[in-house]
Automatic annotation (TrEMBL):
Family listed: Belongs to the TRAFAC class translation factor GTPase superfamily. Classic translation factor GTPase family. EF-Tu/EF-1A subfamily.
CDD domains in alphabetical order: EF_Tu, EFTU_III
Subunit relationships: Monomer.
Taxonomic lineage from the root: Bacteria, Bacillati, Actinomycetota, Actinomycetes, Kitasatosporales
Pfam families: GTP_EFTU, GTP_EFTU_D2, GTP_EFTU_D3
Subcellular location: Cytoplasm
Official protein name in the record: Elongation factor Tu
Amino acid sequence: PKTAYVRTKPHLNIGTMGHVDHGKTTLTAAITKVLAERGSGTFVPFDRIDRAPEEAARGITINIAHVEYETDTRHYAHVDMPGHADYVKNMVTGAAQLDGAILVVSALDGIMPQTAEHVLLARQVGVDHIVVALNKADAVDDGDTVLADLVELEVRELLTAHGYGGDSVPVVRVSGLRALEGDPRWTEAIGALLDAVDTYVPMPERYVDAPFLLPVENVLTITGRGTVVTGAVERGTVRVGDRVEVLGAAVETVVTGLETFGKPMDEAQAGDSVALLLRGVPRDAVRRGHIVAAPGSVVPGRRFSAQVYVLSAREGGRTTPVSTGYRPQFYIRTADVVGDVDLGENAVARPGDTVTMTVELGREVPLEPGLGFAIREGGRTVGAGTVTAVG
Ligand code: GDP
Ligand code: MG
């Protein structure tokens, strides 16, 4: 029998962000190793994190790796995303629901394009707290820390430029690689990084009393038990036995099982990453992008107004302006929907502009003011926005 999940500490969702090869996955593995040695978690080796996409049985999505661990004061779900496109899909759409982020910057390489883009996207989706892991500190550490000092300055400036108050952001010099190898000095540095996360990232407000809502990230079948949907609870609380509706699939059903990280639980609440077993729902009826919610609590719609930042070419966005009639994909929560853009008076929006627009989606999804979304085209992100009004 599986051990039940016992909620003894506040739960937060964090994740690593940063340029490819700066050491996000290595650092993630190192954190689990250091904490496992302290007796609060299970070591998850690099290969398990990097190959996690194939491990559907653990209830993780196809393009996000979750690990869990505990510090003295908190329980964390930590996401590590393999590629830049996964950040866009999961983080920018809010699917990852980060309460805080660890920005991994290689002290050898400094700020690179994806470092800057992830900071920008984090700001857009409301990640209010970032802690910096100045990684590969072992490689610049031969008594001469000038390079690391320069990179630290540069990172603080970048964060300030995006409204993160770069002067007060904790910047911790670490070596994920050396900590993984068991080096005592760098093991201690991981401890310092976790202390910084514990103290600098505040416990977010959880809307546990609101009607339950979970955007579906992934759907799987457990032989003999039925259809399972996974995702992060956006708001509210759900218990085994509760009635829910699946928006998109137009079915009403009952939650017959709940799990988090493979452990059964009686009640899941806002902020939890969970798997929900749904009674009598055919596997094909539910898809990523659907919403599981308290019956009648959300009304889907197709039309909304929004404020949108059009990414500049330097940030990986378009090189040419967009105009009314533009028809990109909108990533809203976990859904991916085509939409018609109307720029009204503005007529055109150039890369680097912030504009207001109205959007008519190709199908209905639950919408509400404040909801963040990404705009994508041909496999890249070209905009990030917030819903200002619905209808
Ligand atoms: P990711 O793409 O950001 O997830 O980066 P990885 O964790 O896959 O690491 C990329 C490369 O950097 C690998 O070859 C790692 O061994 C190396 N690396 C990661 N962390 C460190 C570190 O702290 N020090 C050194 N010297 N190399 C590191
Ligand atoms: Mg990686």
